[in-house]
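Agenda item 2: nicotinamide-adenine-dinucleotide complex prediction
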Amino acid sequence: MHNDVFTNAISRLEHANQYAKLPHEVIDRLKRPRTTIEVTVPLRMDDGSLKLFHGYRVRHNDMRGPTKGGLRYHPQVDIAEVKALAFWMTCKCALLNLPFGGAKGGIQVNPKELSRLELERLSRNFIGEIADFIGPDLDIPAPDVYTNERIMGWMMDEYSKIKRFKTPAVITGKPISLGGSLGRNDATGRGAYYCIKELEKLNHWHPEKITVAIQGFGNAGQHAASLLHADGYKVVAISDSRGGIYNPQGFDIPSIIHIKNETKQVQAVYCSGSVCETVAADQVSNAELLELEVDILIPAALENQITADNAQQIKAKHIIEIANGPIAVEADPILLDKNIIVIPDILANAGGVTVSYYEWVQNRSGYYWPEDEVHSKLQQAMRREFYNVQHEVKEHNIDWRTAAYVLAIKRLGEAMQAHGTREYFMGG
Ligand code: NAD
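Presented output:
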């Protein structure tokens, strides 16, 4: 499934460079990840048997600073996917003007099949394998799909044991009690919400008239849903890996989150047993959810959900990409033809890495900020880059995705050119 996800991801570079007009050596450099590591992670299972898992870490580009990016636990994690995700992190950090390059990692595993003790051992063993490649000034992991703050806490602890000193800044997205930042947990959903608030101003929206469908109800999707619901937006459809629910009147999001947390199971939320009785809703499949007639569609699960096969059927007027890479490259022109505005992943989901940066700053200074300070810094950063991207949209008359890449690669180009250009070395 992910064979060409990296090739697809970097194909957007050439297109953006028609407008950024950077020397080709910059684009060539961005097409190649800096370091790619593949490790075998051994795990002693609860029944005494030994299982071996594939683990990966890719540092895509570190021109602008140490690399940063999440760790994903999923059965479909492979090297092409990790390379694509690392490339997106490079672009995202540049777009938000953070002093970081991009990285990503993961383990090919279905965490739902492991006990909690097995999950802890696997996470600690993975850090044992990659400890020489990460560090607060080198490469700083964070949570991603099916990893969470508890796992980040285990990983920080394991790294600190290996190095024999406490190193909270090696990883972000930690529990607050272990050096996490207030406001990190909802930062990705909140960053997307801030983008929607700017769209609201530009389009003079009345939230109670705006309908929203969200695919993926994990960390990022849930927080975006909560914030939008609190502002009066009608969240009419949500889904997870098992399927979805739809109610044109809109859902009471806090009670859905409560039900989901009550069940204590990641998959067992929708329309199984008591939940269907509690929540009045029609069932929809993930594919159907994407094609609903709504104002805003928020893919917040995995990549390649909107492709050439279903792009023509998308009816939403705005798509806010909380997931990384939910729209395949070949679907871009189809959506553009339909005048659908796509706020791209490298902008819409950048709230997570931005607050991860704040966490890293707080860990290094040993001084912790109140939550409202984190929120207001995040809002300023998101707003600033939202309008910087809009400036590129207007200047070149291009779509938001291309504009975001133009801005990101211009900043990456500046950093690379500061090391010297062809003209500098050849006296041109
Ligand atoms: P999560 O593990 O908390 O949640 C993932 C959700 O997606 C779950 O609800 C799961 O059931 C659902 N899901 C899985 N497979 C699905 C499928 N085939 N169809 C529909 N739903 C499916 O993960 P998350 O942290 O919320 O991440 C979601 C997306 O947001 C990912 O693409 C991730 O890379 C991106 N993202 C997350 C962060 C962050 O800080 N958490 C930051 C930037 C981007």
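Discussion summary: The chain has two domains: 4-168, 187-348.
Owner for follow-up: CH.
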